[in-house]
């Protein structure tokens, strides 16, 4: 039971890396998730049982550990008692989605690797790379998992993936080296869950190849960091400018301007972004031609 309404769909949505994600699938309204816990691999099935309750079943050596962490995954520990929005649009968004909960996985490397894959490339390309690498190098999902689901690779496995396999997944050498370097520091990375979120984000940015955007995307998912603003995102600053200031589509709005505008919203800047999106009030860019996937050069 949760202290108020809970919505697994909204809590788990940021964890899904495209419709073909081998680690998170939605089937008949139920969410199937795989993870590699300290105690071993796990497959879990999560569904809403009541407005304030969920049903969670888990299989595999990591099942008990996963179930212990499930409330945090679904946002039970997300406290926003100090969140008092004043911007009219944010107030309206909060009114539409008053019970939005930010979940935390507690799994740093599992959040960091796909964030690195998403650096500077179209989402569809990053999702494909994640699907190909996890499908080939992940392990079988325990229990009655849906077809094609896999458990994410271990840190040791990420380190051992040959450069040409990253290449075949259209992952350039820079991102591949960042993933391997982060995997080598996996033990230290997982200990970041015990630090305050802002301090943990700073520690992530000390890693080669991990900048502010990647650290924020990781912190949002692994730590449930309500203030992790994805500075450097191609779409975010223009969306904020159009939504909160009513700027026309053709008028640019920079990251620096976004950071200044959202400064009074600390420590809930990421929460504000999620509220705008989940409420339907975010003014997205007009649909245009999809960017072509950039193929990396031959080795």
Automatic annotation (TrEMBL):
Q: What is this protein called?
A: 3-methyladenine DNA glycosylase
MF terms in GO = alkylated DNA binding; DNA-3-methyladenine glycosylase activity; DNA-7-methylguanine glycosylase activity
Under InterPro entries, the record lists: Alkylbase_DNA_Glycosylase/TA, DNA_glycosylase
Q: Is DNA repair found in the keyword set?
A: yes
Q: Which GO terms describe its cellular component?
A: cytoplasm; protein-DNA complex
Organism of this sequence: Mycolicibacter minnesotensis
The processes (GO biological process) annotated in the record are: base-excision repair, AP site formation; DNA alkylation repair
Asked whether the UniProt record includes DNA damage among its keywords, one would answer yes
What Gene3D superfamilies does this protein map onto? Answer: Hypothetical protein, domain 2
UniProt keywords (A-Z) are: DNA damage, DNA repair
